[in-house]
Amino acid sequence: MKKFLLLLLLAAAAWGFYEGAQESGTIQPAGRPAAEASSGRSGGVTEIFRTIVRGASDLPFGELLDRAEETPAAPAAPSSAAPSENPQIAASPEPGLTEVFHFKDAVESRIDRSRFVPSSEIPPLLKNAIVAAEDRRFYDHGAIDIVSVGRAAVANSMAGTTVEGGSTLAQQTVKNLFLSDERTFSRKLRELVLAVQLEKYYTKDQILELYLNTIYFGHGTYGIRDACRTYFNKEPKDLTIAQCAMIAGLPQAPSAYDPIDHPAEAKKRMSIVLMLMAKEGYITPQEAASAAMEAILE
Question: What is the pLDDT of residue 94?
Answer without folding.
Answer: 60
